[in-house]
From TrEMBL:
Pfam families per record: adh_short
Keywords: NADP, Oxidoreductase
Top-level taxon in the UniProt lineage: Archaea
Protein source organism: Halonotius roseus
Protein name: SDR family oxidoreductase
UniProt KW Transport keyword: no
Coiled-coil spans in chain: none
InterPro entries linked to this entry: KR_dom (IPR057326), NAD(P)-bd_dom_sf (IPR036291), Sc_DH/Rdtase_CS (IPR020904), SDR_fam (IPR002347)
Entry keyword annotation includes S-adenosyl-L-methionine: no
Residue span(s) of domain Ketoreductase: 8-188
Gene3D superfamilies: NAD(P)-binding Rossmann-like Domain
Length: 255
């Protein structure tokens, strides 16, 4: 779809850096109007200066219901509609289960799961009223196959996948739908803390661009590219590969 003709509006959380920022720039280049919601807005603000008609920064912590309500209202005031929501904001705190506090577990759920749910709660009535909308919830391979040291993070991604599949069923007679988006492993600030070899990490701008290219897709699961799709399929079919590739996390603990 040519977004410049239709003036489609995308709300994108966690848009200030990483894969979200890559999506933001690619969407703007394709003519979308993008509302970037984040706790920091320096990068979105710079892009807004050069693209005042198509980029807006909204200061929003997705764990604060009032922030979410205010940001969604402001987007509707500014642009009258929300065609697509991308729940991309997330936090990742590496740590073994017995070393993490319940507050740390609560925090990762507050951002990665309940933040997304709250955005959907606020945006859905607008999508229904305008008779259309797509909601993309960004997941992770960890949510599919698990990862030592990421019990909380992986659980939030497993939860958002099940939530999305169930909500998708609930919406199946409506003009609004929701999907699960799978990025490829990328060298972002949070992923870099996991110590993957550089050769396994993609450029976040490139991953964001690939996902932006699929922004109008309504498939149940959207993969950034075929490598991500095949990689996740193989990891599910051959669990020993996941055991082997994550062994280094346990070795580092025993040292
Ligand atoms: N990178 C990967 O390899 C990879 C792989 C699979 C899936 N994913 C998923 O892809 C998405 C993007 O990941 P990424 O690696 O690009 O992440 P990132 O670089 O860590 O960026 C996440 C963004 O979300 C923002 N954010 C954090 N807490 C927030 C909150 N409470 N409210 C609003 N914004 C908040 C962050 O702001 P601050 O940093 O200022 O807090 C940051 O701008 C995530 O859903 C992640 O789970 C990533």
């Amino acid at each position: 779809m040519d977004s410049s003709e239709t003036g489609r509006v995308v709300v994108l959380t966690g848009a200030n850096e990483g894969i979200g920022y890559g999506m933001l720039t690619a969407l703007v280049e394709s003519g979308y109007r993008v509302a970037g919601l984040d706790v920091r807005g320096d990068a979105i603000g710079s892009l807004q200066e050069s693209n005042p008609e198509t980029v807006r920064y909204y200061d929003c912590d997705v764990t604060v219901d009032d922030d979410v309500e205010r940001a969604v209202e402001a987007v509707i005031d500014d642009w009258d509609r929300i065609d697509i929501l991308v729940n991309n904001a997330a936090v990742l705190n590496f740590g073994f289960f017995d070393e993490q506090t319940s507050e740390e577990m609560d925090r990762v759920f507050a951002v990665n799961f309940f933040g997304a749910v709250q955005l959907i709660r606020e945006v859905l009535p607008h999508m229904r009223a305008q008779n259309g909308g797509i909601i993309h919830n960004v997941s992770s391979g960890a949510g599919r196959v698990g990862n030592p040291g990421l019990t909380g993070y992986a659980a939030t991604k497993g939860a958002i996948e099940s939530f999305t599949r169930s909500l998708r069923h609930e919406l199946r007679h409506e003009p609004v739908t929701c999907t699960i988006m799978h990025p490829r492993l990328a060298a972002t600030r949070s992923a870099n803390t996991l110590g993957y070899p550089a050769s396994q990490l993609s450029d976040p701008d490139d991953v964001g661009r690939k996902l932006a290219g699929k922004i109008e897709s309504t498939r149940t699961v959207i993969y950034a590219d075929w490598v991500t799709r095949i990689g996740l399929f193989v990891a599910r079919q051959v669990p020993s590969l996941v055991t082997r590739s994550t062994e280094r996390f346990l070795t580092s603990r025993e040292r």
